[in-house]
Amino acid sequence: MTALEKLGLAALHRVDPETAHGLALRALNAGLGPRGGPFSTDRIRTNIAGLDLPNPIGLAAGFDKNATALGPLARTGFGFLEVGAATPRPQPGNPKPRLFRLTQDKAAINRFGFNNDGMDAIAERLSRRPRGRIIGLNLGANKDSTDKARDFATVLSRCGPHVDFATVNVSSPNTEKLRDLQGKAALHKLLAGVMDAQAALENPIPVFLKIAPDLNADEIAELAEVANTSGIAAIIATNTTIARTGLHGPHATEAGGLSGQPLFEKSTRVLAQLAGLTALPIIGVGGVGSAAQAYAKICAGASAVQFYTALVFQGMSLATDIARGLDALLARDGFASVAEAVGSRRGDWI
């Protein structure tokens, strides 16, 4: 972390988290973020679902919900970016306060509820995106939609021409009944509609599926069965959790999805279980805040990782720090590539 980042984070932590989030985006757009681009070597350069990544470190959805900071984010150390979630119609999300910083736990709880500017505004911004970087969009459903499954396909049809991949997000805990779409029959129907929309694009893009960490073994097996036959290109494991074990501070019992360090073990165990049930690449998310944690997820079965909450505590330069550290860890253990390390220690997590 740079000295400027330390000062900036200290200032941001003096205001409420959602205001701080907005200020961080403004700072990026004012040119105060990293400028060097992604760190890359032959060892950490990789390919997922046909996408060539300079490194396997991605920015998770939720940081740039409305695709308003694509230019400055493209100059950071992330190997790929995911923005959104986008819904067909704009919506304000849940009432404030809806974002809580758990400093002692290096965690956050949010109940945003897919607040966003809607697919038309986001598509227009994505149409002016910087080229030469891998950028994806998280697809969402409107809270008051009578056909949430159709919403995902609608957003893909509108925004798909402007992104490199799209993620079906049925795992946010903050939209009522959304997680019900992870059930076998509902998920099969939803993905069929999304894949029809994907096939209708002039240039079809890979579709990913983002799942929750709060699934039991039978639910994970059913989900894998559907994923394996759906035509999707990868699985993102996992979203935030509704669990609240071992948290500290005044916000520990707030409703919403928990992200950050407390999620690391839970999410990594889910991805390890999933890795034994599918040949699809898995992107590991949940509690990544160091090169060692990124490496652990890769060794558990992930082909790449994403993070977001750790930025709140360690700054935007963390992406480069993790990429450099991952390269060193792979070299230490004799791996010539990320792909060689994937799943090499999966047994430690099951």
Structure, explained:
The chain has 350 residues and is an alpha/beta fold. Helix content is 36%, strand content 16%. The chain is built from twelve helices and 13 strands. It has helices spanning 3-12, 17-29, 70-74, 119-126, 148-159, 184-200, 217-230, 264-275, 291-300, 310-314, 318-332, 338-341; strands at 46-48, 51-53, 57-59, 80-86, 99-102, 107-110, 135-139, 165-169, 207-211, 234-237, 257-260, 282-285, 304-307. The strands form three sheets. The chain has an eight-stranded parallel β-barrel, surrounded by five helices. Helix 8 runs parallel beside helix 9 (291-300). The mean pLDDT is 96.
Q: Layout of helices and strands, plus pairs?
A:
Blueprint: H1 3-12, H2 17-29, E1 46-48, E2 51-53, E3 57-59, H3 70-74, E4 80-86, E5 99-102, E6 107-110, H4 119-126, E7 135-139, H5 148-159, E8 165-169, H6 184-200, E9 207-211, H7 217-230, E10 234-237, E11 257-260, H8 264-275, E12 282-285, H9 291-300, E13 304-307, H10 310-314, H11 318-332, H12 338-341
Parallel strand pairs: 3-4, 3-13, 4-7, 7-8, 8-9, 9-10, 10-12, 12-13
Antiparallel strand pairs: 1-2, 5-6, 6-11
Helix-strand makeup class: alpha/beta
Computed CA radius of gyration, to the nearest angstrom:
18 Å
Which H/E pattern describes the elements? HHEEEHEEEHEHEHEHEEHEHEHHH
Main beta-sheet annotation: 8 strands, parallel, barrel
User: Which whole number gives the mean pLDDT?
Assistant: 96
Provide the spatial order of strands within the biggest beta sheet. Answer: 3-4-7-8-9-10-12-13
Count of runs of 4 or more consecutive helical residues: 12
| Strand content bin | 15-25%
**Could you give the count of β-strands?**
13
Alpha carbon gap, first and last residue = 34 Å
Poorly predicted spans: none
